[in-house]
Amino acid sequence: MNCKDCVFFKTFASFDGAICRATSQPVDPLAKACDKFIPQGRFSEWGEETGGHSCR
Fold it and tell me: Which pairs with CB-CB distance under 8 Å and at least 24 residues apart come from 48-51?
């Protein structure tokens, strides 16, 4: 799965990045595949806490 295809990740698209749990490296939301990632930033664009949730 590409992060761009994950509904949860699209919430954070405006932040232009996330951290892949497997590699602990930033992932490109448009290209790189990563099944488990953590959105950067403590809050989403709607003010909700991210809590380090992964792609479901």
Answer: 50/12
- The tens digit of pLDDT for each residue in 6-54 reads 545 555 544 455 666 667 777 665 555 556 655 555 555 555 565 555 4
Residue 22 CB contacts under 8 Å (≥ 6 apart), including other chains: 34, 35, 36
Contact at 8 Å (CB) between 45 and 34? no
Q: Is residue 15 helix, strand or coil? A: helix
Domain locations in the chain as residue ranges: 1-56
